[in-house]
Write a structure and sequence with these properties.
The complex is a heterodimer. Chain A is mainly β. Chain A has no helices and eleven strands. Chain B is built from no helices and eleven strands. The chains are: A mainly beta, B mainly beta. Chain A binds chain B through residues 4, 35, 40-45, 59, 90, 92, 97-99, 101-109, and chain B through 2, 4, 30-31, 33, 35, 40-45, 48, 88, 90, 92, 94-95, 97-102.
């Protein structure tokens, strides 16, 4: 199994509070991603990173920010959580992107409930 | 909006039968990938097929790709109860990778 650890795995929080999810990898892969998974929507990309301090927006980035200060860590922050951000969040990593997009390796997910 | 659309949304079969899932997409692709997700777990990569390939095999898995019809199919032969999971197709094109909503496969023992 790819070395990807997400924390916390489960979190319940209240509307308006900040939340940070952490993804840690031991594979030294360049690309890291945050997806959210909701019933009927599959996985949707929130943000991704192509290197330390290099990030870009995905399909559903509003309300989320990310940071990558080290190769191995990619943080997802909800500055002020809303009920619509209740979801399961997955971190993924890959060696390549673009024309070289290959296999993505996923973490086990972080289930977030915003009350 | 999602790129791949899986069909059917749910499939229930008996152990030993074959399972076929289909994926349709709308734009160009560099490659198409299939993933599996067990309940409560992350996605696991199954197979990747490039846009210039038409068929690929991996164990009991067979994937076909028809770029003229913008569709792919995943065949699992001689299914087992342990194959029960959700299966997702993902299309990769340039810097974009999109997942479908998945097919929920139940294999009854």
């Amino acid at each position: 199994d790819a070395g990807i650890t997400q924390s916390p795995r489960h979190k319940v929080t209240e509307t308006g509070t900040p939340v940070t999810l952490r993804c840690h990898q031991t594979e030294n892969h360049r690309y890291m991603y945050w997806y959210r998974q909701d019933p009927g929507h599959g996985l949707r990309l929130i943000h991704y990173s192509y290197g330390v301090k290099d990030t870009d927006k995905g399909e559903v980035s509003d309300g989320y920010s990310v940071s990558r200060s080290k190769t191995e860590d990619f943080l997802l922050t909800l500055e002020s959580a809303t009920s619509s951000q209740t979801s399961v969040y997955f971190c993924a990593i890959s060696e390549g992107r673009g024309l070289n997009t290959g296999e993505l390796f996923f973490g086990e997910g972080s289930r977030l409930t915003v009350l | 909006s999602q790129q791949g659309e899986e069909d059917p949304q749910a499939l229930s079969i008996q152990e030993g039968e074959n399972a076929t899932m289909n994926c349709s997409y709308k734009t160009s692709i560099n490659n198409l990938q299939w993933y599996r997700q067990n309940s409560g777990r992350g996605l696991v990569h199954l197979i990747l097929i490039r846009s210039n390939e038409r068929e690929k095999h991996s164990g009991r898995l067979r994937v076909t790709l028809d770029t003229s019809k913008k569709s792919s199919s995943l065949l699992i032969t001689a299914s087992r109860a342990a194959d029960t999971a959700s299966y997702f197709c993902a299309t990769a094109y340039n810097n974009d990778m999109r997942f479908g909503a998945g097919t929920r496969l139940t294999v009854k023992p």
